[in-house]
Every structure is written in C-alpha cells, then in structure tokens.
Amino acid sequence: MKMKDNIIGGKNTLGSARIFSKFAFLIFIGISSSVFGRLQKIDTLKLSRQHYEELFLKQNLLLLAETYKINQAEAMVLQAKLWPNPSLTVEEINLWSTNKQLSYLDEPLPQVFGKVAQNTQFAVQLEQQIITAGKRKKLMAIESVGVKVAEQEFEELLRNLKYEFRNTLTELQYLQLYTEVFFKQRDLIQNLLNAYKRQLENDHISKGDYMRLQTLQLELSKEINELSKAKNETEKELKVLLSITGPVSLYVQEDDFTPNLPKLQNLDVLNLQQELFTYRPDLKLAELENEHFKSLLTYEKSQAIPDINLNSSYDRGGGIWPSFFGFGLSIDLPVFNRNQGAISYAQFGIENTNILSNDMRLRAQAEFDQHFKDFQTALMFYESIHSDFETDLDEIFESYTRNFVSRNISLLQYLDFQEAYLENKRIILESKKEIHLQLEKLQYTIGKEI
C-alpha cells in the first residue's frame, strides 16, 4: 500500500499498513502515555498545525482500528491457500455380538489391538477432496483484491479524517485569533472606562458618553462569550480526532495561519488534473470493485467444473471377506447446476462497476473544476487585500484612540471607526481561513498533498 505517496501529508502518514498494524498498538500506548502524562501537568496544549497533525496520525483510534481490517483481508488470502481437510469416517460398529451371530462365522474375527475389538464389525473410510480447475488460485486472486480494497479503504478513511481534522484545526485557529481581537478591544474599552469614570466624577464628560462606552464593553463581552462557545465546540471535535481526554485546552500557534502566497500562486492546473485519477482512493476502490468481479467471474466459471473426492475404505466383517480394503472416487455430475446464476451475477457486476466507475470519474473531474475555481476566487480576494493593510489598520486605530482620548474626535466618530475596524479584522481573518478551507478541499479532491 502506497501510503506515503497517495495520502495528503504523506510523509507523516504510515509507511505501510502492514508495518503500522503490527506496531500501532505499541505506538499508541507509548505516545498516549507520553502525551496524557504531559496533559495532566499543563492546562493548555500549544502546538503548531504540523505537530497537531503528527499527534493526530499517531493517536486517532479510527485509523488504528482500520489497520486491522487489512490484517483480516490478508488472513482470508491465507485461508484461500489451504486445502480442504480429509474426512475420516468410522461406522457400522457392532458394540456387542450374540452367540447366534457368532455361529454364522466360519472362524472368529481376531482382535485388532491386544484383546480389543474381537468379533467386532466396523468400517473405516478416509476421503479427500481434490479441487479442480485451479479454483484455489482463483479464490486467492479474489481475496488478494480484498487486501487491496482494505488498503484503499484505509487511505480513504485517512483522506476523510485528514480533511475533517485540518478544517477543524483551521476553524479553531480562526476562532482563537478572532477572539483575541475582541479581547484587545474589551481591554482597551475597560481602560477608557477607568479614565472616563474619573472625568465623570469631575463632571468633565456626560453620563451618556460613559454609558455608551459601558454598552460597547457589554457588546464586546457578549461577542467573546459567543466565540468562546464556538471555540469550545470546535475543541471538543478536535479532541475526539486526537484521542485526547480531560479538561486540557488546545491552542494552535498562529505562525502558519497566513497563507504562503508564492507557493499557492504557482499551482499548475494541468499537472493537478493529471494527478486527479492517480491518487484518489475512492476512484481506486471503484476500479478494484471491477477487478473483484472479473476475478469472481473467473472463479465462478471454474465452479462449473466439479471437484473430485478420492476415498479409501476398510471394512471388517461386513462382507464376504473378513477384511476388505477398497478405493473409489466420487464426482458431481453437472446436469442441472452448472453455476449459471453465479456466472451471470459476476458478468452483470463487471458491467455495473464499469458504469459506476465512469460516473465517479466524471464527478471527480467536475469537482476538481469547481474546487479549483473556488480556490482561485479565494486566492484572488486575499491578494486584493494589500499586504500592509492590516498593519496600517492597527496603526490608524491606535491613532483614533489617541485622538479620542485627547478629545480631537467625538465618541460617535470613534465608535464608527471601531465598528469598521472590527469588521475589517473579521474580513482579513476570514480571507485567510477561506484560503485554508479551499486548499484543503482541492487537496481532498485530488487525493494528495499539493
């Protein structure tokens, strides 16, 4: 299984599911003990996006469980290699014999072992089924496809979980940064209120202006409360994906929230289109389903050829000879059942999966076209925001605050600009968030890291 190449963020996924499944439990126990030990000592876990993702790949329980499905599929290949067991039958045993019965014997039946089974009739038969037409290899081929399916299902799960995890991480990072903006504003208003309270006591300002600032502080606190609840909900989802329990808070370092524009501006749409049908696990699963029915058709055709049962038997005292050894064989005659239904089922399965596979490819192409356009739209909007705009916005707001304290501008002017400041801060953060979301959607559509 090509985990490193086929999955978004491949270098931190798993080298192969087989190796992972053998050591995953030990890794999980070791990593979990280490991380949980640290979490008991700290209130907040502060990591970068990359380190959170490494933790996710090592600790997610669904990924750990999915690897065992690959082991199950490999076990079925092993089972298909095995020959049927021989069958041993012991029958026609007379547990006792009367004098009248013994009188019919020309001579008594001797013991078998020591004094055991004297004058006792029994029959023993040993039978072995011989599988014909290469059915065993054909069944192994079917089960081998099952291994590939299990591997691709693992990658599909990993693809879906990564998409969910990264978007949740982006949402948490956005909420943290946006909440910090409101915290700074609330602290600023609190300082203004402290200064205005003294001026109010000295009748230098009106009580209406003071109440307006108090109202603004209450509005900011309410917004912080709503953002905190949303952040808590997002943290809950992230903890489940990280398999983290306890009251610890999660904090995503903001260094990597700003998009890397030079890298994103150089994406080649033609190369991405060529990779579309190479890496997506769901498309590979559709192809594997078709391969499964082709292998199944070959197997079902071989089922029309009957197997042979070879047997050898020993009969003691049951015929004209006191001891009789015989050999034989049995074979089903394919008169009524030539496996016609199962063969037709496999043939229809091939046709069905061909159509569904083509439909999935068309849908994947359409998804790519849409998501690439959405990504370009988000990128162009972010590029339209001047690189120094946020810095200039902060500086101007500080200037407005100084002028308001010096009474060079009115309270109404200050509040109008503050509202515009908060709105522009939200737009800037949302534009960065949208870049992350659209990039993840594009990577999810292609099935690999861009």
From TrEMBL:
A molecular function GO annotation: efflux transmembrane transporter activity
Record bears the keyword ATP-binding: no
Mitochondrion found in the keyword field: no
InterPro entries per the UniProt record, alphabetical: MdtP/NodT-like
Domain of life of the source: Bacteria
Coiled-coil ranges from the UniProt annotation: 213-244
Transmembrane spans: 20-39
Keywords: Coiled coil, Membrane, Transmembrane, Transmembrane helix
Protein name: TolC family protein
Species the sequence originates in: Gelidibacter gilvus
